[in-house]
Batch of 2 targets.
Target 1
Amino acid sequence: METRMTDFFCASPATPAPGPDVHERPPEPIDDTMAVEYTEQLLTPENSRSETSSNNENASAEEKPAVRRRSTRVTRASLRGAVDLNPDPESLQPGLPTPVSENEPTVSGETLVAAVADRGKQTRSSHLRHSIAVMEAAAWSQATLAGEDDNNNSNNHGDTDEPAVAPGTPVSNSSQELHQGEGSSSLPRRTLRKRVERVLTQDGDNHRAGRSTTTPSKAETPQSPPRRSSRISLLDKASALVDRAASVLGKRSRDATDQGSNAARRTSLRPRNVAPVKNEPTASEAPAPKKRRVSESDLPSKAKSPEQSPEEEAPTVKTVTWKPKLWLSHGLYTGQEHTDARPSHKRDRITKVQGSRTPQRTLLPLPMFAGDRLLKSGRDFTLPFDVFSPLPVGQPKPNEWRKTNKNVFVGDASSIWRANKPLELSKCMCVEETGCDENCQNRYMFFECDDGNCALGPNCGNRSFEELKHRAKAGGKYNVGVEVIKTEDRGYGVRSNRTFEPNQIIVEYTGEIITQSECEKRMRTIYKNNECYYLMYFDQNMIIDATRGSIARFVNHSCDPNCRMEKWTVAGKPRMALFAGDRGIMTGEELTYDYNFDPYSQKNVQQCRCGSVSCRGVLGPRPREKERAREAREARAEAERQKKRERANSRRRAAKQAAGTKRKMGKVLKGSASRVNKNRPVASKSRSIKAGVQKAVSKARSSGSTQAASRARNSKAQEKASSTKSSPKKAPARAPSTKSPVKKSETKAKTNVRLPKVPPTKTKVRAPARSRKPQAAKANETTKKSKSQTETKAKAQAEAKAETKTSKLSRPSAETKAKILAAAKGKPAKRTPKKAMNTKSNKSPTKPAPKARVATPKQAKASKSVKSPAKKATPSSSTKTTKAKAKA
Ligand SMILES: C[S@@+](CC[C@H](N)C(=O)[O-])C[C@H]1O[C@@H](n2cnc3c(N)ncnc32)[C@H](O)[C@@H]1O
């Protein structure tokens, strides 16, 4: 018992004086060392005080905390031990000195440690109460310290020689009271002591009651401070954990090597007042580490097992867990994933590139010239419009906004809502090469791909909402990508703080899903006086009311928007989201979409202030441009069809006209370069024929009139002229030949169509041929004109003949007569029967005609000389007639 007391005492230099019997006991040699050391520290009040305070300058750096801790805790323990562990109730009688000497041994370190094990279940509340009590004592002690310290010290030193007592220590004061009893007679002290005792007693009773089953006798197993025990166990556990961690981390070997030197070092640092204990503690021996860590009182036990100390004193390896350094993943390309793809590349392409990107080489740096080459070769890049565009200072924030990022069914909506029909599900058949591009069936149907309806997995480019989810998870305003701004004249709005690629998802439109009746009700009541509405038609006659909703509710309307609001089916459920338009979005742009606003009533119609060129003026429904365009397209198609029909009809007509001259027609068409051109001549042919015929007719008429005027002056030259014409059939063909090649061809065509088949002489006669081919009206006209020309010619000939009758030299031979007659027969018999008859009957000699054909110079002279009377008229008329014929 005494040994224990000594241990306890020695181990706790700052602990209050144990009792007078301690001093009566002869000090042991080893304890002397300790006593000397601690005496040096504790003799003066300053030292005592400084030890209780947090800064003990005298103590070494390593000793300081230990001493301080020891002081407080052990003192508490002693207090507790003094109060709780007193087995003899008589010893606590008032007025008698407290039999500390009897009690103290039970509060030795060993016992405490044993008690620690028993008291592992002590509650925190009791610790707290202890602490409070001790602190109260401390407060009191400090207050009274100034007045009493000197006396106490002098008394102590002078009377009782208690060097280990630290008078200034609050605990020591209370201890002193406990032990000395009458020595401290002041009322406050007693009161405090009683309070502390009461608290401790209560605590002890509680604890005793708790462990009554395990402790047969109070005296044998005194209760040690619960707090201490819990600390011990905690520290023990911690050290065990650290040991384990060290072994896990593979540092055991290093520790093993360090332990040798560390042990030596620690031994040197260890308090030198370690007293080797001669008498081993009794049965209540606790694990050494606990003692060692708790207080000086444990030192003996530590000393008695020196071979264990290196292991027990395993250094607490601090596993420093560095915070992982965060690298900025985006610089200039805020919000954009890095890619080597050209800016012009589509997003799907980029996704593919990212998917197949090889990991960056990390072993060796790039060669020296790599940077130079990169600089020289250059690389296209897209610089955001505004890399850093903070919001203007003093931007107000929408206070009334209640945010929700998920759709919430309200009222009857959830019960009315029906699950999607399986029929509405879609499955895509895309392959990796295409990667669910714009041809993906799911995309086309506004179905988001997932593992259930698409087999491409990460290579799929149709998982916008999934992407949005990841962005939201990553957090940060550049991932979210949008922020609320205050616009000048449209309330709040939303702008981007990063870039968005064309058709990239930006933000989901969420809110309360309500029925239509609920919506109307809200419109009538809650939103009656509102200027802004956050209602949007959703699905199944439901409406999203984003008055409580996501940030997308602040997106304003524009008649020329840069975004689209789209409804997609994601995992069988409809969801609305804002997507970037075809132009993409630059940093700092205000996001807008076309509301296609239905104002419900006329009084809700609002003026649009989007400021776009194509502004519709009001927030109203979008004009049905598509429908209009479709109607226009249909009208155009109808007109085209009509034209085609007409063209086909005309072609059919022309084909019918050219029925007899198919082969020649084919020849004409063959000359055209293309199919279109092949069709053209058919149409132009009729026109050209018509024009050619008209010209010929007009000329023939004019020539006819001229002939009539100069009829009287016709001479033999006329006969020659008439005889020189080869045949009437060539006349119409020759005339165009003098003109442009196009007209020639036209004329040819005309000739081909009509004339070649009709013998020129008979044409006139065969005028009834018109009845044979009544459809060929134009050809008939031509025939008529040629007939008229022939008539004119025949008339001229007849006149010439008549004249030649009178002339002596121009008597035709029989052959000439026959020819003339033959020519005359070409005239329409009906029209010129008389003339023909006359010509025949007269049998006028028209021999010079064949001569004229030859037209030798002698003949010309002769004719000139003979035709003296008709000198003027004859050449001109004949020439004109010839020309007219030729033209015709
Ligand atoms: C969904 S809210 C948009 C956010 C709203 N600006 C705010 O401050 O909360 C729709 C309302 O914004 C206003 N608004 C949106 N676009 C507008 C525009 N182009 N011209 C005028 N007002 C507009 C209208 O009052 C409309 O009812």
Target 2
Amino acid sequence: MDKAQQDALKKAAGIEAAKIVENDMTVGLGTGSTVRFLVDELGRRVQEEGLHFTGVTTSRRTQEQAEGYGIRIVNIDEVDHIDVTIDGADEVDKNFNGIKGGGAALLWEKIVAINSNRIVWIVDQSKVVDVIGAFPLPVEVIPFGVGHVIKKFEAKGYRPTLRMDTDGKPVRTDENDLVVDLHLERIEHPQDLATDLITTVGVVEHGLFLNMVDTVIVGDPNGPCVMTNSNK
Ligand SMILES: O=C[C@H](O)[C@H](O)[C@H](O)COP(=O)(O)O
């Protein structure tokens, strides 16, 4: 699948997910290239159909895009609930375990997700996998002592790399933290790994989102299809 085909599938999933949003809802807006299509469609509905809802964003990037369309964005602490959060993902398996954070937004994404009544992911078909882990697992780490955290990950065989930007500088998250990517190839026991990562001092959050998502809308050449999680 080339990039144009993949973008078409991402766009179709984003447009489908935008139908979930109704007037007066509070909506978590994720981050990434698939979510950009979602926000474009929500912006179109706001401007052409008079849709009105309140958004809580998972990154400054998404906030800027949404506000550019006149979507009302508030801080997460200004709302008492989030009706639905729509976000992208890097991989998801049949047990609804996923990897997120390819765009370094995992921490705010997880905070918004756990405070949402419903979580919807939008992905293209290439992201639905049998076993997660081919996509490098992002881990958000505070800068102080990051070298020691990396050494601990190396000793465990996690094959860590510090994420760099195109200028050769370390990527910084919206919280000014660093991202260490773990090149694991296959994650057979995601819950054990999640526990190990979150109990490592210096780690703020990791990109394993295990059995959190309710619905996955998958962009497929035959039209978007829906995977529903009945085990949550
Ligand atoms: O940090 C970024 C997020 O977790 C994204 O939602 C994820 O990386 C998917 O992004 P994209 O839609 O660009 O593939």
